[in-house]
Amino acid sequence: MKKSHLFLIAILIILVSICFAEVYQEPQDFFQVDLPSEWHFDSTVAFTYYFSCVRNEMLADLIIMVADLEIDFDIYGLAADIEENDLIYLPGYTVIQESKTSIGGAPALKKLYTITEEQLLFDITFVMEDYYVISGKRAFWVQMRTTQIAYNQFSGDFKHFAETFKVGKGSVSDISTSAETIEFQGLTMAVYTAEDNSFSMYYPADWTVTLSEAGATITQDPANQLSPAIDLYPLQFEVPYSSDQIINFLADEMRMLYPSFNIISNNRISEQPDIGGVLFSYVESDVNIIGFAVSMTDGTQGMWADIYGPEDSFTGYNPSLLLTYILQSLNQGSAPNQPQIDIPEEMAGEAAATPSTETSSQPEPGSEEYKKKMEEAMMGTHMWNMSPYLFPDAFDTYIPPMY
Question: Which end of the chain, N or C, is surrounded by fewer C-beta atoms within 10 Å?
Fold first, then answer.
C-alpha cells in the first residue's frame, strides 16, 4: 500500500506540473490567472486580454475584459447590460444556465450559453462560459469558449480559470494624452497613448479617439454622424494579400453599406512596400462624402487607413497630409514617432492646398471634370507625385497588431 501511495503522489505531481505551468500576471495589476501549459497569452487591446489553446486539433479561447464602472452596477445589472448590448446579437444565442458565484474574491454571475454559426458545409455550435465580476468600481467580463464537441475536453481548464482568477489592485484610467502638442497645418496635434500603453500616435487635440477590436477611429465631432473621421485598421491575413486586393475587398464591403460608393481614382503609391491609394465618394443622408485611403500590405500583415467627410468639411488643412502625419507618428509604447513629411519646395503649394468649399456650378458626377475636381479637392493635383515623400519607409513605422 505504501508503494502505491507514493506512486499515485508521483503521478499527481507530474500531472500538476504539466497542466498548470504558468501564472499570467497582468502588468498593471488588474488581475492574474493560472494558465495550463498548453495555453498562452496572445494579445491585448483596450483592456481586453486574449488567451488561446490548441489541443488535439481543437481550439479554445479565454478572453478577459476590464473596465472602470461609471455608474453603479451590481453583477445582475452588468450581466443584463452585456446581454442587451452584445450577446443578443450573437447567432442562435441560447442560455443554458445562470447562477450566482464568486471568483477572485469578488461576487460574480456565471452564465453558460451556446451560439450557432452558419458555415459553408455545416453549422458549428460554440459553448460559452461567462463570469461577470465586480470589485469596487471595476468590472470584469471573463469569457471562455470552445466548440460543443470540444467542451468536455476543455471544461476542466475553464473550471481552473474560475478557481485561480484573482482581482488585482490596478485601476483603469481614461484615455491618456500627453501635455506635449505640435502645430501641423493649423491643427494642434496632441499625443494619444493607448490605455494599455501598447501604442501611441499624434492626433488633432480637439478630435476624439475611439478604440475597438477592429482598430482606431478618430472623429472630429462624435455627436455628428457626418463628421470628418479617420480610420486606422490593422490587418492580419492567413495568406499574403496585395494592396489592390484589399482595396477591392473593402470597396465591395462599402457598396453593401452604401450602393452609391464609387472609386474615383486609384494608384499604386509604392511597389515595395506594397502601398495603394484610392480616392472615393459615396452619399449618406443626401450628403456627398469624399475620402482618401491607403492600403499597405507586407506578406500576411498590413493596414487600412482612411480619412473621409462631407466634401466641404475639410477647411484649413489638407486631409491626405493629416492622415499621413498620423500614420507616420504611430509607434509602439507611449512615445509616438516624430513625423517627417519632407515635400520638395516646388510641390509645397499643392501640399498646402485645402479642399475648395465652393458649391456653385458643380460638374456632373462621374464626368472627367468631376473626377478632376474631386482629386483637386481631396488631395491636390500632384498628390500621386508627392506620395513617395508622404509615405517613406512605410513598414519601418509601427503597425499595431489586429486582435
Answer: N
What is the pTM assigned to this prediction? Answer: 0.49
Alpha carbons 94 and 92: distance in angstroms, whole number: 6
Residues 255-304: tens digit of each pLDDT: 898 899 988 877 777 777 788 888 888 999 899 898 888 888 877 777 88
Considering the domain boundaries, does residue 403 fall inside one? no
Q: Looking at the DSSP assignment, which residues form a beta bridge with residue 207?
A: none
pLDDT in tens, 366-397: 566 644 544 444 333 333 333 333 344 443 44
Q: Do residues 29 and 168 lie in contact, with contact meaning Cβ atoms separated by under 8 Å? A: yes
Tally of domains within the chain: 2
Q: Which domain holds residue 205?
A: 176-396
- In the block, cell 467580463 appears at 141
* CATH code, domain with 112: 3.40.1000.10
∠ CA 332-335-337, nearest 5°, is 80
Q: CA–CA separation, 267 vs 288, rounded Å?
A: 22
